[in-house]
Amino acid sequence: VKMKQHYSFLHLLASLLARTAFLSALTFATRPIASLACVDDLSWYGRASVSHDCDYVGLDPEIRCNWVSAEGESANEACRQTCDPSCSDGGTPSAPTKTPTKAPTPPPSVTNPVSPTPGPLVSNLKENPQVLSDTSAVCSDASGRTSKCEVELDVPASCVSNGQSTCPIVFFLHGAGGTNNWFGRTSGVHSAGFIGVYPQGENGWNTGPKDTNVCSWDDFVCDDDPDEGAFIAGIISELRAQGAAGNVYVIGSSNGGALANRLASNAGGNLPIKGIVSLVTQLMASPERSGPGVLNYNYPRTGGVKVSVLNVMGTGDSVIPYTGG
Asked: Secretion signal: which residues (predicted)?
């Protein structure tokens, strides 16, 4: 029964990825340069976030979401009037009719801030994920991370009860050169009832020798390069501390899929991975280990747990051959 549940979940994840790719393509194919078309099925805030038409979109999430203009409008209402004034009638976007008052300048950052104590799990609105790395030490405690490090957390209201959750936790891993900033709009976790985790890699994921690596490929004492296994394990530990107790799954494409494969190889203990979906990718047989730490072996650990795997490849792929190599 457990095996059927895992494979059913993996099939659902595969469908979710297809939906993600479709919505992403639809969004970029249908939006004009100035603003988005009404057919993209995004909220007012999501539409404005993508088109970057509103001044406050780049501000701190707490300020952005709670901001009210001098006229008493909420951020979403101001964005609706400024960015897509006619979408409520199902028409095409027209010229902006009103410019909202700019939000107040965020206060200066505190020097040497104290890492906040993990608290009860809280939910967020669709297309407005929390930034877990702003309220925890998941980036500062991880080796080899830079200021690029960011972890978004997407928690549907249906997944939280009294600060606790048993919803499945799904990590979405972008490819090399990709970013995490579109998963919040396209992952579909609010419809599916999952908790989404969207980490940002350091110029991709350290799944083998990289041009940006400082350490020699076989120098496992050096900790200047990203330790991806420990990074993901630290995020899981933080989520557990906040009350997220659900099974953990990973879906990744290309370089992100390679990391999904490696996380599965090191599953167990601090990496309680139940299943993965890896797309158009492979895991290198050499070197035996990629990066520092003990959670980065490219081969399944002895006595490790069983992990359900769905791997999707294409026979016409000239970059990642269907037969490997």
From this structure: 1-25
